[in-house]
Design goal:
The complex is a heterotrimer. Chain A is mainly α. Chain A has helices spanning about 10-35, 45-60, 65-90, 95-115, 115-120, 135-155, 160-170, 170-175, 180-205, 215-230, 235-255, 260-275, 280-290; strands at about 125, 210. The N and C termini of chain A lie far apart (about 40 Å). Chain C is α/β, with parallel strands linked by helices. Chain C has helices at about 5-35, 60-80, 105-115, 130-135, 140, 155-160, 175-195, 205-225, 240-250, 265-275, 285-290, 290-295, 320-330, 335-355, 360-370, and strands spanning about 50-55, 90-95, 95, 100, 120-125, 145, 170, 200-205, 225-235, 255-260, 280-285, 305, 370, 375-380, 395-400, 405-410. Chain C starts with a helix and ends in an 18-residue tail after the last strand. Residues about 40-45 of chain C have low confidence and may be disordered. The chains are: A mainly alpha, B mainly alpha, C alpha/beta. At the A-B interface, helix 4, helix 10 and helix 12 of A face helix 3, helix 4, helix 9 and helix 11 of B.
Chain lengths: ~300, ~300, ~425
């Protein structure tokens, strides 16, 4: 489906697929941080919004070209992620989750208080579209999704990725073996934030506006559900799941708008109860188990083990 | 002007205190905050509203029924969900946030279908003159309820078996189990009590302002801030922290730069305070940490 | 810790079943979306009636007013034979989620109404931010907009900068500056008769108030009033005690309110409870409604609100409209009812005059003529499309809540009924 939009020239459907590409980037960059290092970033939507809003402001007031302000959005978000990374130096487990949860709430309040600049609930409108053609937009975002996934996967397969996983497994031991944990944690945050911010900016250019939806709890729940369904720590899993979950989300939005979030919540709760490691993870690990005959992978919960 | 600040700060502080005490009950026992706490607050207000307007029951009956239903929902959540995932705090946080949003969807649907543009619970709006300040009787009621609950909770925690069991589980779960206390039962009791506190807050405060499906979140954050500030396990710490938060918000709300009011910034106070405390001393500034506390106060 | 194997295998089986169900559901949903639901939108329907789109927060009081105003207009026009021999049909689209209009939904609505429903004109959107988001779609889809809301000055400024690009945007309500002009005409008179010099303004921090506040700051100075306190308020605020107290401390003698979304029953109750020594008046969507008296338990006594349409001889059509509306819907019209009704009527008249339905011709005609509506006389500026404001054009009527919930118009003075006068709150007599 993702590769052949020409089958349907319907603009609504094209936009749907285009945004799904962006969601894929959201989930992959969420996974490289929260899935790999175990620091579940409940304020992830804050990073998306920071990128989206900074690109929007640059574009609307300074007429910066979309491609440039997407990069700038990513950079601003990466720099801002330091605010989230700092507390992770001291905080364990639930405290980090609670603290990161607050950032999107602050963002929302700031946009409302400084209405003339950030436009609160109304959002910033008048952003230039990425290109004039919906089809080109689709291919560009597809390219973005594929490239991001590729880059992040390369990172995860490298030494950096191994350290990230080590941080999740046992941070103290990792530190004891001489690795500069802080540097790697910051790296994870930066990578995750850069792609989140760039994706947020791209989102703004597709809809020609950004709003508090980018920082909403329902987006957080959708992302978390997609993440778990796709498989925590598998990168490809969440990326693929993003397409299906986003389409499902949009369908629900048309049919039963108020209950849409509730349904996702129910699925999320269900997944956490039954299979916190992720649906596809279970399948993969079962499959690997079958192959290796007897070496048992530990299932269990996501998050960091030493909490 | 100062007197007004003092009195209003105290009434808001009372609301926050009731709410925060409820949260600290479950936070202490479960070792992780129940992010659906705000949802219980919202649920109780809406259930009371529905009972009142759709079924025309007497308001006192609505209050009782609503509290009952809210506590039932809370206990059901605990037994079906929370109990099983306690081992992983991150799971609990995500799951309880989802739970809150899940309930919110229903409340949103009701608000939309009911045709009421604005929903209110009855409250007593006549005002009373205290030292030259006019204050509505509803606010006086809130203060009275708060004092009663504070004393009651203290008595419960210090003198009754249940209360001591709760403290035991909160302070030292392994020893509590060794002594024969059922952690599961205590969890359920704590959840029930906590939801009741949230419910009372919802009904009292829901009467003072228009209800909205999202009204639970600011209260959750404020309660979290207070509990983190005041330290788990300390009733007086929690109360002091509630008053500090309430007064700080009041002061910020009455500031202005030149012509322009800064009252919008008062909502940021709890958020920023929480971040600052979590960054520097997550175990709380005022209260004792769970291990240190021995004597009730 | 090892988990007992029997529980583990039950859990596994359950998990696998769930996985299967989830995957099947997801695939089915995706297929449904692609093959069944989207193609439905391409069925061509040939329909002789002219479609009028309504875009707004249809479940809120404002949105309901819009839809009902449009419906009444359509029914009235159809009774006399329709427009250019064809009947009119309404096509509503709700752009709100949880009571607030969303730009994304507004955009989607405009596109759907233009491409799928092929409406000839859209009445709406109600919210300024949605209108701002839509402006750039106008040259592309060319569907005429005659809105009864969206008053932000920004819109008019954009139109003035590029009138060719935005030629399809019209508004029957005055823009924010227009509201501000009326506001200050009113305040000048009222403050003179009540001997007031110190004014505070409480306003929702949203798009429509920005222009009004800017205008007010300079106008107050020019007229010699003392603007002592400006309070921007989050529309979701639950309590106004701090702002009321500060206004009192700063010596405000009059509080002017600018609210459309916020819950002002709390504001009025708190103002009353505190016995704030300031006359309270303003623009307040909630307080327009007849039920406001009951929800505030009579504490709205002396609160004076601007009505952009009221049962008074504003034009010779006004009172008849009010009575027809009350009979048709069982409740009184709100300002959106008047303005949306006028929007349809004005469009219809332009279409009949030019004999054509296409947006270009109708837009040109709208700019040329004067219209006698139910909420005033309309003339659109050729540069910014703003409606003319003032005595012979469009004005607002300030109506005060008096004893027993009676709504008495007190300004402009020609609308003050004989034997009636302005009242003050009980503690200020």
């Amino acid at each position: 489906m993702p590769l052949v939009p020409a089958i349907s020239e319907n603009p609504s459907y094209l936009i749907l697929l285009t945004v799904a590409n962006i969601y894929a980037v959201f989930t992959v960059s969420f996974d490289i941080l929260s899935g790999y290092t175990g620091y579940v970033n409940m304020g992830y939507t804050f990073l998306i919004a920071v990128g989206g809003y900074s690109a929007a402001l640059l574009n609307i007031h300074c007429h910066v070209s979309p491609f440039l302000d997407i990069i700038v959005g990513g950079i601003v978000s990466a720099v801002t992620s330091m605010l989230l990374a700092l507390p992770s130096l001291r905080l364990k487990g639930p405290y980090f989750a609670i603290l990161s949860f607050i950032y999107p709430l602050i963002f929302e309040k700031i946009t409302k208080i400084f209405y003339p600049i950030f436009r609160g609930e109304d959002g910033l409108a008048g952003i230039t579209s990425l290109t004039e053609s919906l089809v080109t937009n689709y291919y560009l975002t597809l390219f973005f999704a594929v490239t991001s996934t590729f880059l992040i996967t390369m990172c995860s397969n490298s030494y950096i990725g191994t350290i990230f996983k080590a941080i999740r497994e046992d941070e103290t031991a990792c530190e004891a073996s001489g690795v500069n944990i802080t540097l790697y944690k910051f790296t994870a945050f930066t990578i995750s934030a850069f792609f989140a911010g760039a994706a947020g900016a791209t989102y703004g250019h597709i809809f020609t506006l950004v709003s508090l939806d980018l920082v909403s709890l329902s987006l957080l729940v959708t992302l978390l559900t997609t993440w778990i369904v796709g498989g925590i720590g598998t990168l490809i899993g969440p990326a693929a799941a993003a397409y299906v979950m986003y389409m499902l989300d949009e369908q629900l939005r048309r049919i039963m708008p108020e209950m849409r979030t509730s349904i996702f919540c129910l699925v999320l709760i269900f997944l956490i109860l039954l299979e916190p490691q992720g649906v596809f993870n279970r399948i993969f690990s079962d499959f690997k188990k079958y192959l290796r005959q007897g070496i048992n992978k530990e299932g269990g919960h996501f998050g960091r083990k030493d909490t | 002007m100062i007197l007004e600040l003092l009195i209003y700060g105290f009434t808001m502080g009372s609301v926050y205190a009731i709410s925060a005490l409820g949260l600290s009950l479950i936070y202490g026992v479960a070792r992780v905050p129940n992010m659906a706490y705000g949802a219980f607050y919202t649920l109780s207000a809406y259930i009371a509203f529905i009972l009142l307007n759709e079924f025309s029951l007497d308001f006192s009956l609505c209050i009782l029924l609503s509290l009952f239903v809210t506590v039932a929902i809370a206990i059901a959540s605990e037994k079906l969900l929370i109990k099983h995932i306690l081992a992983n705090p991150n799971s609990v946080i995500i799951a309880t946030i989802s739970l809150a949003l899940f309930f919110e969807g229903f409340i949103q649907k009701y608000q939309k279908d009911s045709g009421y543009s604005y929903a209110y619970l009855p409250s007593i709006t006549e005002s009373v003159d205290i030292l030259g300040i006019y204050i509505s009787i509803q606010r006086v009621l809130i203060i009275v309820v708060f004092l009663v609950l504070a004393v009651g909770l203290h008595f419960l925690m210090a003198k009754t078996k249940v209360g001591m069991a709760i403290r035991a589980v909160a302070q030292n779960p392994e020893e509590a189990v060794a002594v024969g206390i059922s952690k599961e039962k205590i969890l359920t009791i704590a959840m029930g009590l906590s939801a009741a506190m949230a419910g009372i807050t919802g009904i009292l405060f829901g009467g003072m302002q228009a209800m909205s499906p999202y009204m639970g979140w600011p209260l959750l954050i404020k309660s979290l801030t207070i509990v983190t500030l005041g330290g788990l396990g300390s009733i007086s710490g929690t109360i002091m922290a509630s008053l500090i938060l309430a007064y700080t918000e009041q002061v910020v709300a009455s500031l202005s730069i030149g012509l322009i009011s800064l009252s919008q910034f008062s909502e940021l106070v709890s958020l920023i305070l929480l971040i600052v405390i979590l960054l520097f001393k997550p175990t709380g500034l005022l209260g004792k940490t769970a291990k240190e506390e021995e004597i009730p106060h | 810790m090892p988990v007992p194997s029997k529980i583990e295998s039950n859990k596994e089986a359950l998990t696998k079943l769930c996985v299967l169900i989830i995957i099947t559901t997801m695939i089915t949903a995706a297929i449904l979306a692609h093959y069944i639901i989207y193609p439905m939108f391409f069925l061509n329907q040939v329909n002789p009636s002219i479609k009028i789109g309504v875009l707004g927060p249809l479940l809120t009081p404002a949105g309901r007013g819009m839809l009902e105003g449009v419906t009444l207009a359509i029914e009235t026009i159809n009774k006399r034979g329709g427009v250019l021999g064809r009947y009119l049909e309404v096509v509503p689209y709700d752009d709100a989620e949880a009571g607030i209009s969303k730009s994304e939904k507004g955009l989607a609505g405009y596109i759907k109404l233009s491409t799928e429903d092929k409406v000839s004109v859209i009445i709406g959107p109600y919210s300024s931010h949605v209108a701002l988001a839509l402006l750039d779609l106008l040259p592309k889809y060319k569907t005429l907009i005659v809105t009864s809301g969206a008053i932000a000055d920004e819109i008019d400024k954009k139109i003035a900068e590029n009138p060719t690009k935005y030629k399809y945007f019209f508004r029957t309500h005055m823009n924010a500056t227009g509201e501000a002009i009326i506001l200050w005409d009113y305040l000048t008179d009222i403050c003179k008769s009540l001997n007031i010099t110190k004014i505070a303004i409480f306003y929702e921090n949203l798009a429509w108030t920005q222009g009004i506040i800017e205008y007010s700051k300079s106008k107050a100075q020019e007229l010699g009033f003392n603007l002592v306190f400006l309070a921007p308020i989050d529309p979701t605020t639950k309590s106004y005690i701090s702002e009321l107290r500060t206004a009192k401390d700063k010596g405000a003698q009059l509080i002017y309110t600018l609210f459309s979304l916020a819950d002002t029953t709390v504001l009025i109750k708190e103002w009353y409870e505190q016995k704030i020594p300031a006359f309270i008046t303003g623009g307040d969507m909630m307080a327009e409604d007849p039920t406001f008296w009951n929800t505030t338990a009579g504490k709205a006594y002396s609160y004076t609100i601007v009505h952009w349409g009221f049962r008074a001889p504003i034009t010779n059509k006004t009172e008849e409209f009010y009575d027809d509306y009350l009979e048709r819907f069982g409740h009184t019209p709100n300002f959106q009812s008047y303005l949306a009704y006028d929007a349809v009527m004005i469009w219809a008249q332009a279409a009949e005059t030019t004999g054509k339905l296409d947006s270009d011709n109708v837009a040109d005609t709208l700019l040329e003529n004067i219209y006698e509506g139910v909420a005033g006389r309309y003339k659109f500026s050729t540069t910014s499309h703003s409606v003319y404001v003032g005595k012979n054009w469009k004005t607002g009527i300030y109506v005060q809540w008096q004893d027993n919930g009676e709504q008495v118009p007190i300004w402009p003075s020609e609308f003050l009924p004989p034997g009636k006068s302005i009242v003050l709150p009980p503690w200020m007599r």
